[in-house]
Write a structure and sequence with these properties.
Elements lengths: L1 E2 L4 E2 L7 E2 L5 E2 L7 H16 L1 H23 L9 H14 L6 E7 L4 E7 L1 H8 L6 H15 L5
Antiparallel strand pairs: 1-2, 3-4, 5-6
Length: 154
């Protein structure tokens, strides 16, 4: 993968790509699953074209992302409740890969939880790599996982 700040291929050291806002993005190490996914997408896009590459990565990112989400949100260890989900959303956003995002809690009651993401590093990284079209797939992980987490069980 070509590093924007160094104009050469990544050697496996920590990423220091220049974001479109001009600041440095230092969030993803090459061992990160999202970093690898974006690298694969860039290569597939070159070989197969955007449409086929996007569909392959959509399935891959959603499948792996939902599994990773369930591990981070401790779906086996903790009871599935709205309160736990809200608490875990704030905890995960301090410790997991989303820790580099900036968010603010707009509203939190026993029936409503609204968070506004004011800076999304996934979007900045994808945009800096010239593949902003992949960003909604990352967002779909949360949509799928949140809806599944709160679904009723028998």
């Amino acid at each position: 993968m070509r590093c924007a700040s160094r104009d050469r291929f990544c050697s496996g050291a920590a990423c220091e790509s220049v974001g479109s806002s001009g600041g440095l993005i230092r969030a993803f190490r090459p061992s990160s699953s999202i970093w690898r996914s974006l690298w694969v997408y860039l290569n597939l896009k070159q070989r197969l074209g955007q449409a086929k590459a996007f569909e392959i990565m959509r399935v891959t990112i959603l499948t792996g992302g939902v599994a990773q989400w369930n591990l981070a949100y401790q779906t086996v260890e903790k009871a599935r409740s709205f309160e736990n989900l809200c608490d875990l959303e704030l905890e995960v956003n301090k410790t997991e890969p989303t820790r580099w995002n900036t968010l603010e809690v707009v509203d939190r009651t026993d029936r409503r939880f609204e968070v506004k993401v004011t800076r999304c590093l996934y979007h900045e990284l994808a945009r800096s790599l010239g593949i902003p079209e992949i960003t909604p797939v990352i967002c779909q992980i949360d949509n799928a996982a949140f809806n599944a987490h709160l679904s009723r069980t028998p």
